[in-house]
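Example 3.2
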Amino acid sequence: MLEATESLTKKPRVVLTGPPCSGKTTLAKQLLLAFPETFHYVPEAGTAMIAVVGVRPPTGNRGAILEFERCLYQAHRVMERLGNIQAWADRRSALLLDMCAWDCVSFLPNGTADAWETFGVRREDEFRRYGLVLNLAPAPPEVFERERHNNPSRVHSCAESLALAPLIAATWSGHPGLVTIDGWNWPAKLADATRIVKAWLSR
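Structure, written as tokens:
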């Protein structure tokens, strides 16, 4: 029933992606202020699972990693579909996603090569789910260390966060709505993202 509802009433989707501590959640809060009555916000499923269920991403065991990401992918899909229903109920015109289901690919041992085995999905089909993708550059080490404890569910180190950046870029490579926002001047980063989202909404 949810799948049928989604296919009939799918709202446009903006994805905020990037490694841990790149500013996704902070940017989401700012965009919600900049575009009131426009977005229904869907938080990151991984953070919710870590905080509420008390799980931690497995390491070393390929089978455990694939099963964890498979569950997380499904959690994202459910949250996106429920968010879509609520966006219609609240008369919002789009969804704002703090990461999304396809982002789980970045955490698979072989990236997109594992997507079909793990999720049973193809890249071109997943890309069609998302309209605009803002990929935020990783925070420099001094910013990461200063901000890392703002989210008690954050489990990655600064080195792990930096290593994820090219994997996330590869996951989204080729998406027609991909925009990479480089640098760590936060006012400039916010201004760039706001300008891009405004242009996308008015297209």
